[in-house]
Every structure is written in structure tokens, then in C-alpha cells.
Amino acid sequence: MDFNEFFQSKIFKIVLIAIGALIVMILVFKAGEFTGYRKARFSYKWGENYHRNFAGPKGGFFGDFRRSFGDRDYINAHGTFGSIIRIDGSTLIIKGKGEVEKTVLVSDKTTIDSRRESLKASDLKVDDQVVIIGSPNDQGQIEAKFIRVFR
Q1: Each residue of 5-41: b (16+ CB within 10 Å) or e?
Q2: CATH number for the domain including 81?
Q3: What is the pLDDT along the chain (151 residues), one digit of tens a residue?
Q4: What's the domain range around 122?
């Protein structure tokens, strides 16, 4: 059997398909492993920053649960409201109810509105009253998707 006949043989094609299938299986396994690692890392970091994500328990984990829920005095990690106390580039520090400070990250994709006009991040000023909707990252910061400014 010469060299050309080997590459055209049925055995070579079966071996080539088996190697291709093995490579695809390894890639799928690695993709699952990567996704699982990212999810576990996020969960771990988020848990480590629990107190920052929820502004810490005021009276312990369930100490003032009834008072807080009844008064609607709970804090959501997916947004905040209050006044801007500091602006550092694309990072806002918001002081909200109970003097709790939240860090908010503003990106190019963040929509900023005041009444009926659209604003840019550079239009925001210290002491502006804002409502922010976004999603928490693993450092306990809010990645803003929408900011409403009340002037």
C-alpha cells in the first residue's frame, strides 16, 4: 500500500472522523467547564460581598425583618435611589436612604434621562437626585442600565 492509497482508504477516514469527534467532545467539555467556573466564581464573589450588595443587615440577618418589610425600607442590589455625592470618571457614589452609599458604574450603554430629554454621563452633577436600575457585579457595585435624573 503506497502513501496515496493510505489517505484514500476507509480506515484513514474512520480514524480522521474519530479524531474530529474527540476534538469536538473535548471542546464541548471545556466550554462547560469554563461556564461552570465563571458561575461558581461569580457566586463566590457575590457571597463574599453580600453585605455590600444588600447594604448589610441593620439588625442582624432577620433582626428587623418585619419592621423593614412593613415600612417598605428594603434595599435592592439591582438599583438604588438617592443623591450623587461623588463622581469619579464613570463611577458614581450615591447616598440613599439611611445614609447608605452605593457604587454605580456608568457605561456607554447606560441610558440617562431627565424628564423628556436624554443626557450624557458628563451631564450628571454632584447633588443630582437619581434613580438607578441595573445589575450587581461580583464586587457589590451596580452596573447601571438606566438612570433617571430629577432636577
Answers
A1: eeeeeeeeeeeeeeeeeeeeeeeeeeeeeeeeeeeee
A2: 2.40.50.140
A3: 577 787 788 888 999 999 999 999 999 999 999 999 988 888 777 766 666 555 555 444 445 444 444 444 444 567 888 999 999 999 999 998 788 889 999 999 999 999 889 999 999 999 999 999 998 888 888 999 999 999 8
A4: 77-150
